[in-house]
Amino acid sequence: MAEVERPQGSFCIDRWEATLSWRRPNLPPTPWPGNRAVDGREAELFAESASGRMPQGYISGDQAERACANAGKRLCEIDEWTRACRGPRGRAYPYGEERRAGVCNDRFKTLDAHPVERLYDRLKPKDMARLRMWEPFFMNDPRLHELSQTVERTGSRNGCVTETGVYDLVGNLHEWVADPAGTFVGGFFMDTRQNGEGCGYRTTAHRRNYHDYSTGFRCCADVQRSAAAAPIDTATSPSITP
Fold it and tell me: How is the chain split into domains, by residue range?
């Protein structure tokens, strides 16, 4: 985790978007596929954060909160997430003030090659009107993440990182935050501009029990140090274990 400062006190945030592992009695934990919904398995799945893994989509805000709690963490407050994204200089994007093509996993041409449309056109489902592809049952099809130009492994974009070493806060997947009414932030691989610019992106159109191929998350935690611990220089040690 990376430590981030704010006036209320420092906190820790996962450096990479969350993946899940499945914990069962008498068995070692095993990775949970990032394009598989977690409905009915919430008690058995816990969040992890690591580079080079496919992040978990298809997850609701309630399920994300449970996965963080199962890992001894919590969903980030919206202010925590935003401060981590903007960095100490309050930038519009993790990497600077101006949006640049190819830095994060966000389509620069907003609506080209949309995976929902591409999957529908490939399957050509019988007796299904085209507009129905935007309904949750179709937008939770796991094959959406198997298409090209969609979700990428965590940390794949070396430039999409904050000054404190936090990756993919903009683009790749939406990220749920701790808003009981339901908010996800940061945009996803198709869009980081339509509902706000970069670190200011907000979607409030869905309740916390909603999920689809675009919804992901990461966890936060309070900083925990022993009384005798020396201060940590976050400039040289961005990864902090709470």
Answer: 2-222
Q: Say which CATH architecture domain 2-222 belongs to.
A: Alpha-Beta Complex (3.90)
Task: Please tell me what DSSP assigns to residue 25.
Answer: T
pLDDT at 155 over 90: yes
pLDDT in tens, 90-142: 999 999 999 998 999 998 666 688 999 999 999 998 889 999 999 999 999 99
End-to-end CA distance of the chain: 8
Are the CB atoms for 180 and 75 separated by under 8 Å? no
- Containing 22, the helix (H) or strand (E) segment is strand 18-22
**Beta partners for residue 188, in sequence order:** 191
Instruction: State yes or no: pLDDT of 237 exceeds 80.
Output: no
Question: Which residues, 6+ apart, have CB-to-CB distance to 201 below 8 Å?
Answer: 170, 185, 186, 187, 192, 193, 195
CB 29 within 8 A of CB 20: no
Query: Among all chains, which residue has been given the structure tokens 């949309």?
Result: 114
Return the structure tokens found at 209.
Answer: 């029990």
At 98, list the tokens: 């101006």
Nearest to 169 by CA among 102, 98, 107, 105: 105
CA pair distance 53, 126, nearest whole angstrom: 35
Q: 176 phi and psi, to 5 degrees?
A: -65, 145
What's the CA gap between 194 and 186, in Å, rounded? 11
Query: Are the CB atoms for 183 and 78 separated by under 8 Å?
Result: yes
Which residues does 126 contact at the CB level (< 8 Å), separation at least 6? none
d(CA 165, CA 218) in angstroms, rounded, equals 14
